[in-house]
Design brief:
Length: about 270
């Protein structure tokens, strides 16, 4: 398709862990495909320094707060990806983390587990808050009492998953399954469990979130939630161009519910 002269910028903050690298590559790839299909130019940057772009796709809110505030003030067309905020004026396209987490924990319950723990992500991040909410909602739906000892806090990193898992293993009544809010943490948690003599999934079952490449390796074989990166980036690009061209009055607010639970071998079905 012939380019129409419109240039948009995809701003990706500097990340440090594997999921973020995986997410970055996925968003860049899918946004590039969408840009080609729409006939627009796409530039990728880690920060916003000039006014040459007609609009901006923010890959995340975290580490982009100042740039987002500037876009609001200067009335530059923008869309926040991987976010569905409370501010009704923001254009945003996010993942339904609560629904996806509910379905992941529901899968564990249907496999016969009732002693289910969770390792959370950062609870100052929307994904962390919503994934914990989905965990709690699933327990309530199955009339399983919430044991606060079964909630261990992480910060998305592998080491935090290890540390959180070690705390859970010190409990007298060790859980039979753990829902981990991110694959990086899940792999760290699984490593800690194995080092303590637990076999996966015979002694402990795990479900993660993100479906990073390492989750599919034989040493992990982690059941996990896959996110729709193609839809996230593709819809973001499509709606950003519509905003640039037509200046719609209502903000774009889309919550994607089409996550997918990828079932591998990290969950044992208990006898009911």
């Amino acid at each position: 398709m012939e380019k129409n002269g419109i240039t948009v910028t995809l701003i990706i903050p500097r990340y440090e862990n594997m999921f973020s690298t995986f997410y970055t590559l996925g968003i860049i790839q899918e946004a590039s495909k969408a840009a080609i299909g729409l006939g627009v130019n796409l530039t990728v940057a880690t920060s916003w320094k000039d006014h040459s772009s007609a609009g901006i796709l923010f890959a995340d809110v975290v580490k982009n707060e100042k740039c987002i505030e500037r876009a609001r003030k200067e009335k530059i067309p923008y869309i926040l990806l991987n976010y569905y905020g409370k501010c009704s004026k923001d254009n945003c396209i996010g993942i339904d983390n609560e629904k996806a987490s509910f379905e992941a924990v529901n899968y564990l319950v249907k496999a016969g587990h009732r002693k289910i723990a969770t390792i959370t992500g950062k609870l100052d991040a929307q994904a962390g808050i919503d994934r914990l909410a989905g965990f709690k909602k699933a327990l309530r739906a199955h009339k399983i009492a919430l044991d606060k000892r079964y909630i261990a806090n992480g910060d998305w990193t592998r080491e935090s998953g290890r540390s959180a898992m070690k705390k859970l293993l010190l409990l007298i009544d060790v859980p039979t399954a753990v829902f981990v809010a991110g694959d990086e943490m899940a792999i760290g948690a699984m490593g800690a469990a194995k080092e303590s003599g637990f076999k996966i999934p015979n002694d402990l079952s795990f479900v993660g979130f993100d479906n990073i490449p390492e989750a599919n390796l034989p040493r992990a074989s982690l059941t996990t939630v896959e996110q729709p990166f193609a839809d996230l980036a593709g819809l973001g690009m499509k709606h950003l161009i519509e905003i640039i061209k037509n200046k719609p009055r209502k903000p774009v607010r889309i919550l994607l519910g089409n996550t997918k639970l990828i079932k591998r071998t990290s969950v044992k079905e208990l006898k009911k």
